[in-house]
Amino acid sequence: MLALNYRGPYRVRVAHKQEPPIEHPHDAIVRVTRACICGSDLHLYHGLVPDTRVGTTFGHEFTGVVEEVGSAITTLKPGDHVLVPFNIFCGSCYFCQKELYSNCHNTNPCATAVGGIYGYSHTTGGYDGGQAEYVRVPMADVGPMVIPPDIDPDDAVLLTDACPTGYQAAEMGDIQQGETVVVFGAGPVGIFAAKSAWLLGAGRVIVVDHVDYRLDFVRKFAQCEVVNFRYVRDMAVHIKRMTDWVGADVCIDAVGCEAAGSAVQRLTGRFLKLQAGTATALHWAINSVRKGGKISIVGVYGPTFNAVPIGNALNKGLTLRMNQASVRRYVPRLIEHIRAGRLNPKAIITHRIPLEDASDAYHMFSSKLDECIKTVLIPPRARA
After folding, report:
1. 294: domain range?
2. 178-217 residue pLDDT tens
3. Which of 351, 356, 358 is nearest to 374 (CA)?
4. Do 153 and 300 lie in a common domain?
5. What is the CATH number of the domain that holds 300?
6. What is the domain-level CATH number for residue 349?
7. Of 59, 258, 328, 333, which sits 20 to 30 A from 273 (CA to CA)?
8. What is the pLDDT of residue 24?
C-alpha cells in the first residue's frame, strides 16, 4: 500500500509499505477514504515531538471503509464507512468510564499522561496513522463510529479531531451568557473554537493571529472580530483596551508549542529546545484575561518544562483547564449542530490533494502557501 513515511525533520515522502494485518481480536482494518493534515502534524514534521521514529506514518484525522474485522468485533462489519476519533481508547478503564478518552490508561501504558494517538510518535503509543491507503484500528469496537447517511464525509473527517477539539476548547472555558472570549490562533482548531464560543453563549468573540488570510477566513466563518498581533505592541494591554481595561472573560490557547510573537520564546523553545516549545500564546492568554477569568488550553505542548507565568495566574485567581479532546464524547452533539445548520465543518477545507503528493501538501501547509486552511489527502482508491 501507499503510506506517508517520515524520514526526519521536514522530510516526508509517500512510499510502499506492507498492508497492516489484524493483530488482535478487537482490531479492524480500515481502507482510508480521507485523511487530514493537522496543525499538530506539523510539530512532528518540524522535529519537535520526542521519539518520532523514521518510518512512522502520520495522520490522526481520517475516515474509511471497514475492510476486515477481528473475531471479537460485533459493532462493525466490512463495508461500514466510519469516522475514527484520533484517540485510541479501551472504553473500560477508570478514565474511559469518565469519558476522558484522551487519557485512556490501557492504550499507552508507558506514559503517565496522554493515551494512544494514531500516527503521533512513540510517546503516544507508536501507532501508525491514517495518511495511508490502509490503517489498523485497535479497540475498534469502541472507537470508530459509522458515518450517518445524511452526514457528508468531508464533514465527518473533521469530526475526528479539529471540530471536537475546538468545541471542547470553548466548553472548557465555561462560557457564560454574554461573555467576551479571545481565541489565540486562527488555524482550524481556533476557527472551530471561535464558532463554538457563539454556540455556548458568548457575547463577543475576538481571534488573534498574524496571517492575514487566516484572519479574513475566521472573520467570515465565525463572524468574529480579529487582531493581527504583528501590529500590536503589547497583547495584554491591547486586549484590556478592547475590553474597558478589564480583560477578557475567557482566553483560549489554540496555538501551542510553535507560537510566533516572541523572539525569546522562539529561541529557547524552538531552536535551543530549553523548553517544550514556545509558550507565547499561553503567556498572552494568562496576561490578557480578567481577574477571576478562565483559560482553556488545547494547543499542543510537550510533556516537559515550559516557562509559564504561573504566579500571574495564581495572583489573578484564574481557572486553567486543558486536555486533548475526548472526541467520542462530542461527536453526537456536533452532528446535531451540523444537521441544524449551525455548523458547516467542511467549509474550512481549502485543498484536496492526492495522497501521493503528501510531501508537497506538508510543505504548503507548513509554509502557509496558497491561502491553505485545511488540507485533505485522498488515497487512490477513494478517488475512483
Report:
1. 163-322
2. 999 999 999 999 999 999 999 999 999 999 999 999 999 9
3. 351
4. no
5. 3.40.50.720
6. 3.90.180.10
7. 59
8. 96
Alpha helix ranges (H) inside the chain? 39-45, 94-97, 153-158, 162-172, 188-199, 212-222, 235-242, 263-266, 280-288, 310-316, 327-339, 358-366
Choice between 348 and 268, residue whose per-residue pLDDT is larger = 348
Rounded CA-CA distance 256/183 in Å is 12
Regarding whether 337 and 311 lie in a shared domain, the answer is: no
Residue 378, CA atoms < 13 Å, CB-side half-sphere = 12
Would you say 252 and 166 are in contact if contact means Cβ atoms under 8 Å apart?
A: no
| DSSP count for the chain of H helices, then E strands | 12, 17
> Can you tell me the mean pLDDT for 3-22?
97
pLDDT for res 50: 87
Write the single-letter amino acid at 132.
A
Rounded to whole angstroms, the Cα distance separating 324 from 302 reads 12
Predicted confidence at residue 384, as pLDDT, reads: 66
Residue 272 has pLDDT above 90, yes or no: no
CA dist 339 → 54, 81, 107, 148 (Å): 42, 19, 33, 11
Cα distance between residue 207 and residue 197, in whole Å? 11
List, in sequence order, every residue forming a beta bridge with 227; answer none if it has no partner: 208
Contact yes or no for 147/40 (Cβ under 8 A): no
Same domain assignment for residues 119 and 177 = no
Give me the DSSP letters along 262-288. -HHHHIIIIIS-SSSSB-HHHHHHHHH
Highest mean pLDDT among 112-126, 140-154, 266-280: 140-154
319 DSSP β-pair partners:
294
Q: Does the pLDDT value for residue 56 go beyond 70? A: yes
- Say how many domains are in the chain: 2
Of 277, 301, 322, the last residue of a domain is: 322
Sheet holding 180-184, edge to edge: 225-228, 204-209, 180-184, 248-253, 289-297, 319-322
Indicate the range of 49-63, 118-132, 258-272, 333-347 predicted with least confidence: 258-272
* pLDDT of res. 363: 97
Same-domain pairing of 50 and 178: no
In the structure grid, which three cell numbers stand for residue 341, read together? Answer: 445548520
